[in-house]
Amino acid sequence: MNGYLSDVPVICQDSVGRCSFIDVLEEAVLVHRPVAVALRDGERFIDVVTDVVTENHEDYAVFRSHERVPVTDIAAATRCDPHQR
């Protein structure tokens, strides 16, 4: 994950807990800043979180360009400067 951005701390869901992690995603919605996301299956991407929704007792992160992802599938996230790669 830090290959995206080495100077910004990575927030791991397993370390901070589900509720705090959802708070981080909801904050990302408010500031409209891209986040670097690492999924538990190894996939990684950078996108803007547009919403966090709950459907059928499951929380989902909704992204601008990427399909929505169950929060339980997200291992970690960090804020990302879109000009750095």
Which characteristics define this entry?
alpha+beta; 40% strand; single chain; 85 residues; SH3 type barrels; six-stranded antiparallel beta sheet
Explain what this protein looks like in three dimensions:
The protein is of the alpha+beta class. It has one domain: SH3 type barrels, CATH 2.30.30. The protein is 21% helix and 40% strand. The protein has a 6-stranded antiparallel β-sheet. It is globular and about 35 Å long. The model has no long low-confidence stretch (mean pLDDT 85).
Blueprint of the fold:
Elements: E1 11-12, H1 13-16, H2 18-31, E2 34-39, E3 44-55, E4 58-63, E5 69-70, E6 74-79
Antiparallel strand pairs: 1-6, 2-3, 2-6, 3-4, 4-5
CATH fold type: SH3 type barrels
Please indicate the count of domains. Answer: 1
Q: How many extended strands?
A: 6
The span between the termini is 12 Å
Helix percentage range: 10-25%
What sequence of helices (H) and strands (E) makes up the elements? Answer: EHHEEEEE
Query: What gyration radius follows from the Cα positions, in whole Å?
Result: 12 Å
CATH architecture: Roll
Structural class: alpha+beta
Taken from the alpha-carbon principal axes, the silhouette is: globular
